[in-house]
Amino acid sequence: MIKNVEIMVIGGGPAGLCAALSASDLGVGISAPDLGVGISAPDLGVGISAPDLGVGVLLVERDDVAGGQLVKQTHKFFGSEKQYAGDRGIHIGQMLVEKAQADSNIEIWTDSTVLGIYEDGVVTVLHEDKHIKVKPERIIIATGAAEKFLAFPGNDLPGIYGAGAVQTLMNVAGVKPAERVLMVGAGNIGLIVSYQLKQAGIDVVAVIEGQPKIGGYLVHASKIRRAGIPVLTRHTILEAYGNGRVEGALITEIDESWLPIPGTERKIVCDTICLAVGLSPLTELAWQAGCEMGFIRELSGHVPIFDENLETTCPGIYCAGDVCGIEEASSAMVEGRLAGINAAASLGYGVSEAEKFRKDAMIELEELRSGDMGGHIRVGLEKMYARCKK
Amino acid sequence: MNSLRIEEHPVLSFERGEKITFFFNGREIDAYPNETIAAALHASGVRKLGESPVLHRPRGLFCAIGNCSSCFMIVDNQPNMRVCVMKVKSGMHVEEQKGKGELELIVEN
Lengths: 390, 109
Description:
The complex is a heterodimer of chains A (390) and B (109).
Chain A: E1 2-10, H1 14-25, H2 41-44, E2 55-60, H3 89-102, E3 106-109, E4 113-117, E5 123-127, E6 130-141, E7 145-147, E8 160-162, H4 163-171, E9 180-184, H5 188-199, E10 203-209, H6 218-226, E11 231-233, E12 235-241, E13 248-253, E14 266-269, E15 272-275, E16 279-281, H7 284-289, E17 293-296, E18 301-304, E19 317-319, H8 329-346, H9 351-368, H10 375-389
Chain B: E1 20-24, E2 27-31, H1 37-43, E3 50-51, E4 58-59, E5 72-75, E6 78-82, E7 93-98
Parallel strand pairs in B: 1-7, 3-7
Antiparallel strand pairs in B: 1-2, 3-4, 5-6, 5-7
């Protein structure tokens, strides 16, 4: 049996939740226009979501709760009020999830993994231990990103974690993952997680950073300084050592060509090494679906090629959030909203409001990407649009 | 070993519910419902979750989002379980996985 869906959102993080909510706001699931596609409310009964019946928006999340990485972000967000600035990530996530749960146009499947997107438009999902076929009219891929790894001897020892993993253990489970931590990377994640480790009563011996200056926001860096954690720029890790577990690390200063400066090596005693060295878009589904992919360094690697509507080269497949370029959760939320609006509008929903909503979202994105920190994203998008027009 | 659980936090409060127990390599370990297996093991000081297939090097948790495969363990005889996202259940048997797990062949008549 095939489940008919108007818009399928893959990934229940900030981008996916906002995509589902904005599509529903435009009327997806309520009053399907007669396009020969979709399902109309009278046939369906709004809010009915038995697997054999259709639904407006289907949100599929691999984890057992939606919310993505917002569930562990205890810090306050920046941006403007529209992106919930001043509120903590955990609360934003909770609010978005509750809103989506209360929305009768949105059906949420948690603990569910999308397995493949096929040429005939069928998407297969592992849901409640069953292999289920879904036929959406539109797809929004919002699968997010995963933490990058770093090559050095001993990097597989237990006790070497992605910084986000440690954040999950502390802030979601309330478990102290460590006693003494060496943080590798002084971007926003490295700085924020170091501060949160301190809040959980864990020692951070140092934050090391290969670049000559701190990559993250000054606000976060200042907090780290005030907490008395040294930030060593132009430093890298040479080796992790320990018998069956991390017992320490060898670090070194590096020169302008990123080569170790002999004589500057020193041992750091720690039981945990956190890697905060960037994220990679989780693009497997986009590759598999046959979307044209491009390597754009400023967007953090291989990403699906997309146009200003966030539509990929596969008609009807949109992307939003980290999967199409690593940015912050605030941008992911706006991008999600934009993808939801565009997907809904392409199905004939909200024709009168869609244009205004789209413009609002574009302006918000522009604001979020203005300033020094957004420089690489602006370059990346320029490359993207040049590539897309070809 | 409750000291590894965070009791006081400036932003968060943790409501853990009733204590349950499960088994790690045959040893009984405390846990709380809604915890992942990996979190419960970490709370008991267990960081080695298995061994690599060829060199038998110890393996631990890395991503905690069910993506990297570093945390594969045997749970109730089922190998390759991602314990970083799998919830712990009372009485569950969790074992270190040495190398690639072998799947049980189920033949349905």
